[in-house]
Amino acid sequence: MRSYGQYCPISKGAELLGDRWTLLIIREMLFGPLRFTEIEQGLPGISRSVLASRLRRLQRDGVIERTEEGGGYRFTPAGESLRPVVQAIGDWVATWVMQDPQPAELDPELLMLFISRHVRHEKLPPGKTVVAFNFADDRRRFWLTMERHDSSVCLEDPCLPVAVTIRGSVRELYRVYMGRTTLSAAIDGGTIELDGLPADRRRFAEWMRWSHFSPTVSAAQTSRH
Predict the structure, then answer these.
(1) Which end of the chain is less crowded, N or C, counting CB atoms within 10 A of the terminal residue's CB?
(2) Is-contact 51 39, C-beta < 8 A?
(3) Number of neighbouring beta carbons within 10 Å of residue 106
């Protein structure tokens, strides 16, 4: 990005974070340290050359650094201090701009990645817990494998017992994840179904943290009503 030629923190910030993809790379790094391919996974549509260029710029500006092993990236102290900034931007958008997702925004793989990052690991039972996702508007199936220390999304059947199976549309689960509706309201309305033992169905809501912005989205909707 070319300089605005202004001695102003806002213009300097726009020069640093205003390039296409840069703020989304910062969003991904909130879940770091991450390897190049892990950052790329959360940014469908970005080219590898653009991602490499943006990472070099963020390194040069002191926002991120290579991990000691040399295989990934992590925030510097300056990058860590961006966490409340990103949260504030997202909260503003969630309060004043956020609407239901548009068809072009309904990416089930990205949704599953988001969900996997917001698991309440401390609420899980010992061992591996598997949740299957069957989307009515997408032929693929997804499995979320969760443990006390990690979560991963599988595109192939992990051949493990499934505690809960979720059936519904990608759109409706995005709405639940983002706080546009609640899981209980979606179930009561018949747009999402949960199959499994009654105890596991009850616990499922405890396992999921949903988006960091969902409380803000929900509060904004309540205030408008």
Answers:
(1) C
(2) yes
(3) 17
